[in-house]
Amino acid sequence: MMRTKVLSLTALFIFGAVSVFASVKTEKIKVNGKCGMCKSRIEKAVNSMEGVESATWKNETQELEVKYDDQKTSTMQIQTSIAITGHDTEMFSANDKKYAELPDCCKYQRDENREKMDHSEMTPGYKQGTSANPGCDHDISETAGSCCEK
Ligand SMILES: [Cu+2]
Protein backbone atom coordinates (compact mmCIF):
# COMPACT_ATOMS: atom_id res chain seq x y z
CA MET A 1 0.00 0.00 0.00
CA MET A 2 2.71 2.40 1.11
CA ARG A 3 4.83 1.40 -1.84
CA THR A 4 2.04 2.10 -4.29
CA LYS A 5 1.60 5.54 -2.83
CA VAL A 6 5.31 6.32 -3.12
CA LEU A 7 5.31 5.08 -6.68
CA SER A 8 2.34 7.16 -7.72
CA LEU A 9 3.87 10.22 -6.10
CA THR A 10 7.06 9.56 -8.05
CA ALA A 11 5.02 9.20 -11.21
CA LEU A 12 3.29 12.49 -10.50
CA PHE A 13 6.61 14.17 -9.93
CA ILE A 14 8.05 12.83 -13.18
CA PHE A 15 4.95 13.91 -15.10
CA GLY A 16 5.25 17.37 -13.62
CA ALA A 17 8.93 17.61 -14.52
CA VAL A 18 8.27 16.46 -18.07
CA SER A 19 5.55 19.02 -18.62
CA VAL A 20 7.82 21.78 -17.34
CA PHE A 21 10.74 20.89 -19.59
CA ALA A 22 9.00 19.62 -22.67
CA SER A 23 7.47 22.87 -23.78
CA VAL A 24 8.23 22.63 -27.47
CA LYS A 25 5.25 23.49 -29.58
CA THR A 26 4.51 23.54 -33.29
CA GLU A 27 2.64 26.42 -34.82
CA LYS A 28 1.64 27.52 -38.29
CA ILE A 29 1.89 31.23 -38.95
CA LYS A 30 0.76 33.13 -42.04
CA VAL A 31 3.76 34.88 -43.56
CA ASN A 32 3.66 36.66 -46.91
CA GLY A 33 6.46 36.03 -49.37
CA LYS A 34 7.04 35.17 -52.99
CA CYS A 35 10.14 33.21 -53.90
CA GLY A 36 13.04 31.07 -52.78
CA MET A 37 14.92 34.11 -51.54
CA CYS A 38 11.96 34.99 -49.34
CA LYS A 39 11.96 31.44 -48.04
CA SER A 40 15.59 31.56 -46.99
CA ARG A 41 15.24 35.09 -45.57
CA ILE A 42 12.23 34.14 -43.44
CA GLU A 43 13.65 30.81 -42.30
CA LYS A 44 17.05 32.30 -41.51
CA ALA A 45 15.50 35.03 -39.38
CA VAL A 46 13.48 32.53 -37.36
CA ASN A 47 16.07 29.76 -37.15
CA SER A 48 18.62 32.15 -35.70
CA MET A 49 16.36 32.85 -32.71
CA GLU A 50 16.98 31.28 -29.34
CA GLY A 51 14.41 28.61 -28.55
CA VAL A 52 13.54 27.85 -32.17
CA GLU A 53 14.11 24.24 -33.20
CA SER A 54 13.03 24.40 -36.81
CA ALA A 55 11.28 26.68 -39.25
CA THR A 56 9.96 25.87 -42.71
CA TRP A 57 8.16 28.34 -44.93
CA LYS A 58 6.15 27.23 -47.94
CA ASN A 59 5.34 29.54 -50.82
CA GLU A 60 2.27 27.52 -51.87
CA THR A 61 0.58 27.90 -48.49
CA GLN A 62 2.19 31.21 -47.43
CA GLU A 63 2.69 29.52 -44.10
CA LEU A 64 5.60 29.11 -41.78
CA GLU A 65 5.67 25.97 -39.70
CA VAL A 66 7.78 26.61 -36.66
CA LYS A 67 8.79 24.43 -33.74
CA TYR A 68 9.81 26.37 -30.69
CA ASP A 69 10.25 26.22 -26.95
CA ASP A 70 7.58 28.50 -25.57
CA GLN A 71 9.60 29.03 -22.39
CA LYS A 72 12.30 30.73 -24.45
CA THR A 73 10.41 32.55 -27.15
CA SER A 74 6.89 33.30 -28.33
CA THR A 75 4.86 33.72 -31.48
CA MET A 76 5.04 37.50 -30.87
CA GLN A 77 8.83 37.43 -30.87
CA ILE A 78 8.99 35.14 -33.88
CA GLN A 79 6.61 37.32 -35.89
CA THR A 80 8.51 40.43 -34.86
CA SER A 81 11.74 38.95 -36.23
CA ILE A 82 9.98 38.19 -39.51
CA ALA A 83 8.36 41.62 -39.81
CA ILE A 84 11.76 43.23 -39.30
CA THR A 85 13.08 41.44 -42.39
CA GLY A 86 10.28 42.98 -44.49
CA HIS A 87 7.65 40.24 -44.49
CA ASP A 88 4.09 40.70 -43.26
CA THR A 89 2.84 38.14 -40.79
CA GLU A 90 -0.66 37.48 -39.49
CA MET A 91 0.12 39.61 -36.44
CA PHE A 92 2.43 42.28 -37.78
CA SER A 93 2.74 44.41 -40.84
CA ALA A 94 6.36 44.70 -41.91
CA ASN A 95 8.22 47.96 -41.79
CA ASP A 96 7.45 49.77 -45.09
CA LYS A 97 11.07 50.77 -45.56
CA LYS A 98 12.22 47.16 -45.18
CA TYR A 99 9.57 46.06 -47.65
CA ALA A 100 10.76 48.69 -50.14
CA GLU A 101 14.32 47.38 -49.77
CA LEU A 102 13.39 43.84 -50.77
CA PRO A 103 14.68 42.69 -54.18
CA ASP A 104 12.05 43.03 -56.94
CA CYS A 105 11.49 39.29 -57.10
CA CYS A 106 10.49 39.34 -53.45
CA LYS A 107 7.89 42.10 -53.66
CA TYR A 108 4.90 40.03 -52.67
CA GLN A 109 1.39 41.40 -52.92
CA ARG A 110 0.61 43.21 -49.69
CA ASP A 111 -2.81 43.07 -48.13
CA GLU A 112 -4.36 46.51 -48.57
CA ASN A 113 -6.21 46.13 -45.30
CA ARG A 114 -3.18 45.27 -43.24
CA GLU A 115 -2.74 47.35 -40.15
CA LYS A 116 -0.75 50.48 -40.76
CA MET A 117 1.87 50.02 -38.14
CA ASP A 118 5.35 51.42 -37.99
CA HIS A 119 7.79 48.85 -36.71
CA SER A 120 10.91 50.87 -37.30
CA GLU A 121 11.45 51.12 -33.54
CA MET A 122 10.74 47.48 -32.95
CA THR A 123 13.47 45.15 -31.81
CA PRO A 124 13.29 41.38 -31.54
CA GLY A 125 12.56 39.99 -28.12
CA TYR A 126 10.33 42.67 -26.63
CA LYS A 127 7.67 41.40 -24.26
CA GLN A 128 4.03 40.95 -25.08
CA GLY A 129 1.89 43.91 -24.07
CA THR A 130 4.78 46.29 -23.75
CA SER A 131 5.89 49.22 -25.81
CA ALA A 132 7.90 48.64 -28.96
CA ASN A 133 10.37 51.12 -27.50
CA PRO A 134 12.88 48.81 -25.77
CA GLY A 135 13.82 51.38 -23.15
CA CYS A 136 10.28 51.68 -21.86
CA ASP A 137 8.07 49.04 -20.29
CA HIS A 138 4.73 50.84 -20.25
CA ASP A 139 1.82 49.03 -21.76
CA ILE A 140 1.04 50.22 -25.30
CA SER A 141 -2.46 51.24 -24.19
CA GLU A 142 -1.10 53.65 -21.58
CA THR A 143 1.58 55.35 -23.63
CA ALA A 144 -0.18 58.62 -24.45
CA GLY A 145 1.93 61.51 -23.28
CA SER A 146 4.45 59.27 -21.58
CA CYS A 147 8.12 58.59 -22.10
CA CYS A 148 7.20 55.97 -24.66
CA GLU A 149 6.45 58.67 -27.18
CA LYS A 150 9.39 59.71 -29.26
CU1 LIG B 1 11.74 36.53 -52.49
Describe the structure.
- By secondary structure, the protein is α+β, with helices and mostly antiparallel strands.
- It has a domain at 23-110: Alpha-Beta Plaits (2-Layer Sandwich).
- The chain has four helices and three strands, in the order αβαββαα.
- A three-stranded antiparallel beta sheet has the order 1-3-2, covered by helices on one side.
- A hairpin with a 4-residue loop joins strand 2 (52-58) and strand 3 (63-69).
- The termini are far apart.
- Bound molecules: copper (II) ion.
Task: Give a short overview.
The chain has 150 residues and is α+β, with helices and mostly antiparallel strands.
Bound molecules: copper (II) ion
Determine Rg (CA atoms, Å).
20 Å
Report the CATH C-level class of the domain at 23-110: Alpha Beta
Biggest beta sheet attributes: 3 strands, antiparallel
Please state the average pLDDT score: 78
Structural class: alpha+beta
Strand content: 5-15%
CATH architectural designation of the domain at 23-110: 2-Layer Sandwich
Which stretches of 5+ consecutive residues score pLDDT under 50? 124-150
Sequence of strands across the biggest β-sheet? 1-3-2
One letter per element, helices H and strands E, the order comes to: HEHEEHH
Overall shape: elongated
Counting DSSP E segments of at least 2 residues, the number of strands comes to 3
H/I helix tally: 4
Helix content: 25-40%
Query: Could you please say which CATH topology of the domain at 23-110 applies here?
Result: Alpha-Beta Plaits
**N-to-C span:** 67 Å
